Amino acid sequence: MPRLYLTIIASLLVFLVEGQVKLKDLISFGDEQFQKGDYYYATKIYDQAIALDSLSVDLHWKQAETQRAYKNYVEAAKWYAKVYAEDAEQVYPNALLYYALMVKQTGDYSKALGLFKKAYKASATFPDEYAYIKAKQEIKSTEFAIKSMVRSPEPILPMPDSINSFDAEFGHMFKNGVFYFFY
């Protein structure tokens, strides 16, 4: 009977070590893709790593940073919020600031303003630090954006698909008071 227990314990150890190697390999490969600038692929790799270790704040931070670099601000905001909520040791003290920046990028200025004020208060003990200075400036910027928002009486409708594709290969321009677009 003791041999059975030893066999089971040895099998579990091999399984756990193999899982850790796979996780480390995924993280390393994701980091490599991030360094190359292949943010889309890096997000997919980090998703796989998070599936193996869903409690890792470090992985959540990597995913947030990658989503921000990929300019997927909605997803980046979600991951920064997760890091902010889970980072009890304050390993990532700028998580709240980046969360606020991503919310601002999505156009939710009221929510972003509240988050910037919270980040400003949290970093008030270090007035020479980046987070404090950035939060202070972003509060002013967001308040200005809220005041400057123009409410359009009519909704702005998108141009037909024949004008440009979803990604708009060609931009538009104004010249001598005329609006030019290309298709």
Task: Provide the fold topology.
Blueprint: H1 2-36, H2 39-52, H3 57-69, H4 73-86, H5 95-105, H6 109-122, H7 130-148, E1 173-175, E2 178-180
Helix pairs in contact: 1-2, 2-3, 3-4, 4-5, 5-6, 6-7
Which features does this protein show?
mainly alpha, two-stranded antiparallel ribbon, 2 strands, 66% helix
Report what the structure shows:
With about 180 residues, the protein is mainly α. The protein has a domain of about 70 residues. Helix content is about 65%, strand content about 5%. The protein has a two-stranded antiparallel ribbon. It starts with a helix and ends with a strand. About 5% of the residues have low confidence.
Radius of gyration: 23 Å
Mean pLDDT: 85
* Number of H/I helices: 7
What's the oligomerization state?
single chain
Strand order in the largest sheet: 1-2
Compute the separation of the termini in Å.
77 Å
Q: Characterize the main sheet.
A: 2 strands, antiparallel
Tally of DSSP β-strands? 2
The best one-word shape is: flat
Secondary-structure element string: HHHHHHHEE
Strand content: under 5%
Uncertain runs with pLDDT below 50, 5 residues or more? 12-17
Supply the helix-strand structural class.
mainly alpha
Helical content class: 55-70%
